Amino acid sequence: MRIISSLEVSAVEQFNNMSLVGSWIFVLTIGCILKNSPLGYISIPLMKSAGRTTLDNLQRERRSTVELQNYDNLQYTGEISVGTPPQPFTVLFDSGSSILWIPAAACVGGCEMHSMFDAQSSSTYNHSSKTVSIQYISGGVQGVAAYDNVQFGGMTVSNQYFLLANTTSRMFENLFADGVLGLSPGYKECHADCSILKSMKEQNLIESEVFSFNVCKEKSVAELYIGDHELGEEKSKTTLPLMNNTNSWLFELSKVTVGDGIVCSRSCEAIVDTGTSLILGPSEEVKKLHELIGCKVTYYNENSIPGIHPSCRTRGKLQNVTFDTGEHSFVLTPDMYLSDCTADHCFIGILEHLNNFGSLGYSTWIFGDLIISEYVTTFDAANRSVTFTDC
């Protein structure tokens, strides 16, 4: 979830109202505003097929698990429980935000069709006098700061901070989850105890604040590991340090190119965000990227959704899009960035944003599931780095 100050988005908000590859597109960049002021890891299978690792087997291996669902490589959700006795919720695991939120029993807006938390029924629930507002690109959430036990398939995080939402934007009606669980490396927008990773480390549930998304699209099963975990066989990998003074999974890019054309060659950077489905970039750079792509781009839905005629794809005219870090190149072929092709058009999964989420004066790109599904991505808050391992 990316930090923003308003909801002014053109392409993104229009995309949120469209079906793409049979699913909904979400952009969950956020800012969180406070007003008034035995060691192991969790193994979370992201099920793509009927096959599964059973909870009993994982417990024998000193693991704990909660089952996650994958929606067309666009949203990854799983089950948690909150309170005593535990109340179940489905949450979206989001590397772009630092806070857990779920709907309150009296929540209104886009939460009314989702599971809601009955605070009065939990003997371990506590709340503060602070009200909290979270702003995403695609909508907002407001509520009160609260504390209660949070369970991940056998492990309990005691007295965990979360936002109990009283109102949410209507766009959350289309979310395949009741709430969002944030996994960002920083918590400047709220405070230290809002990080569930930090709580798990302090309560000796995990050894370090590390998690890995293994959502490789060609595999039938995807997984999320929270805590240190060996990925098994050695494969090519690239570790990128986070930029200084950032609360996001933000690293530097040396350049962005389309074929031989330059889109950005200095002051470029990228945020890795599991809560975003596609790729977002600054308006002027994205327009230039579309101009260089090798085919005339048409904008649908009030000039906001970029697309091309499918004949360009069949004639092989389209160029690769490359995000270069100096150590590694993220190369997107036309088959990777095109989707929802019909007889009339193919949509382009690289959209513009109107907000600056990163460093002042930088060209900031957001890497969503379009890139994440090509790698096993490890987020290391302790060493402030992101590692991309080939699938």
From TrEMBL:
GO terms for molecular function: aspartic-type endopeptidase activity. It comes from the Eukaryota. Disulfide bonds join 107-111, 264-268. Keywords: Aspartyl protease, Disulfide bond, Hydrolase, Membrane, Protease, Transmembrane, Transmembrane helix. The chain crosses the membrane at residues 20-42. One of its GO terms (biological process) is proteolysis. Residues 76-389 form the Peptidase A1 domain. The active site is at residues 94, 273. It holds the Pfam family Asp. The keyword Membrane applies. Belongs to the peptidase A1 family. This is Peptidase A1 domain-containing protein. It comes from Apolygus lucorum (Small green plant bug).
